[in-house]
Design brief:
The chain has a 6-stranded mixed sheet with strand order 1-2-6-3-7-18, sandwiched between helices. Strands 8, 9, 16 and 17 form a 4-stranded mixed sheet that branches. It is of the alpha+beta class. It folds into 2 domains: 281 residues, 3-Layer(aba) Sandwich (Aminopeptidase); 157 residues, Alpha-Beta Plaits (2-Layer Sandwich), CATH 3.30.70. The chain is globular and about 75 Å long. Helix 3 packs across helix 15. It is built from 15 helices and 19 strands. The longest helix has 19 residues. The two termini are 28 Å apart.
Length: 452
């Protein structure tokens, strides 16, 4: 697929540059834990110095540092930050078609851990920054930041820079990962612009039971059986729908049935309407459902005992929970209590980590610029604002700098959202080379649009 208004030869050159750069980045294993992102920061420092662009390597600890480059324009103007992160989730080679840190380029794709989350943006934004610098004549400031420790967020990275070196990353606008997936609906290409995101309220449930020899079955008081019932109840529970973050315009665009649309946009009927939607189209239901409230996902189970012939006194269950922007522990605790009201188990809740979700305003001049660039590059497409159901470093910027507008948007051109989604943190993670080039071209075009 062609990119409107961009010479095909120029697209091919960007594709070559971004593909080569991403392949090299993937080969630097920055699995988090342990991270070791400083190696990428040093690689980027050498890359930009080839173009006589000098940034800074900053952060703690020594092995977990980030890279930041600030380019000053020729006249006053706003500051735009192109943000990405250099760590990746671990990858077990079993099941992969290619070694996960090979950075192999084949069949029109770049393969490997980080190809879609999110070393693709480390590469795409780098090439875009070099091209904007070469063109010159822009206003304000363009900042390139490739930060450590996004996947766990416990050591350094964007949060460390904001707290310890705010002058390096202070800005008016942030363009970050997420969003940009598209769906072809009703003959029109619909792109997601993430203007906010849900928070996290991860917790552990400790289920208590009776210790004893397993040769005599426990019909009551078996912590393992009780934990199984807790998992089943959490999995089956449907929290009360809330409409405060439901993207009304999105619902109106993707749901053709007028009666179903009305039910989905009414809190009293939304829960049953989501069930009805799932029966018709599970893909659309999966897109919409997380926007209606908290989600509860059991992920890890541990027993206090190790002997197979002994009933453990405790079973510990870890749960990943995502909350609507602005909401926190109290609502989650109430919902967990409701979910487990009918379960015969003695349990207690311990918080593992809570980060409140937040959002930037919309519409804004920044959002208008995104729409103008997309209209030029992909004529006839539409951009719809909604909240991300995941967490990104944009949260730290919104919390620290109240006036910043942080949007998550890294658009695809060829592969749609349903095709791309399973690749995030998945086996055979990869990105189409043309999509990678498009992300770089979009970033450069947006920078020139904002910094006019």
């Amino acid at each position: 697929m062609d990119i409107a208004g961009i010479d095909p030869a120029a697209v091919a050159e960007v594709e070559r540059e971004t593909t080569e750069l991403l392949s090299r980045l993937i080969q630097i294993d920055t699995s988090n834990p342990p991270g070791d992102e400083t190696r990428v920061a040093e690689f980027l420092d050498r890359y930009f110095r080839r173009y006589e662009l000098v940034g800074e390597i900053a952060g703690e600890p020594a092995a977990r540092r980030s890279y930041v480059l600030r380019l000053e324009g020729s006249r006053p103007g706003p500051t735009l930050l192109l943000l990405s992160h250099t760590d990746v989730v671990p990858a077990e080679p079993q099941g992969w078609t290619v070694p996960p840190f090979s950075g192999l380029v084949k069949d029109g794709y770049v393969w490997g851990r980080g190809a879609a989350d999110i070393k693709n943006l480390v590469a795409a934004n780098a090439v875009a920054t070099v091209r904007v610098a070469a063109r010159g004549g822009f206003a304000g400031t363009l900042v390139y930041a490739a930060t450590a420790d996004e996947e766990e967020g416990s050591v350094g990275g964007a949060r460390w820079l904001i707290e310890n070196r705010p002058e390096l990353v202070r800005c008016d606008y942030v363009l970050n990962e997420g969003g940009g997936e598209f769906a072809d609906l009703g003959g029109r290409r619909l792109y997601e612009l993430h203007t906010g995101e849900k928070g996290t309220a991860q917790f552990r449930l400790t289920i208590h039971g009776e210790a004893g020899h397993a040769s005599v079955p426990l019909r009551r008081g078996n912590a393992v059986v009780a934990a199984a019932e807790v998992v089943r109840a959490l999995h089956a529970y449907r929290p009360r729908p809330r409409l405060e973050n439901v993207p009304r315009a999105y619902v109106e665009l993707i749901i053709e049935d007028a009666e179903l649309r009305t039910r989905l946009l009414d809190e009293a009927t939304a829960g049953e309407a989501l069930v009805a939607l799932a029966e018709r189209d599970q893909r659309l239901a999966d897109l919409l459902a997380p926007h209606y409230g908290i989600t509860l996902s059991p992920t890890i189970v541990h027993s206090s005992g190790e002997a197979v012939n002994v009933f453990p006194q405790e079973v510990r269950l870890s749960v990943d929970c995502r909350t609507l922007a602005g909401r926190g522990e109290d609502e989650v605790a109430d919902e967990v209590g409701n979910a487990l009201a009918g379960v015969d188990a003695e349990w207690e809740l311990e918080w593992l980590g809570v980060v409140r979700g937040n959002a930037s305003p919309h519409p804004t001049p920044f959002g208008d610029a995104v729409e103008r660039v997309m209209a030029r590059l992909v004529p006839g497409s539409a951009v719809v604002a909604l909240h991300s159901v995941g967490f990104t470093d944009s949260n730290w910027f919104r919390a620290a700098f109240p006036d910043v507008v942080a949007y998550n948007y890294s658009p695809y051109l060829v592969d749609d959202g349903a095709t791309v989604a399973p690749r995030y943190h998945g086996v055979d993670e990869r990105i189409r080379a043309r999509d990678l080039a498009f992300q770089s071209i979009f970033a450069a075009e947006l920078a020139l649009e904002v910094l006019r």
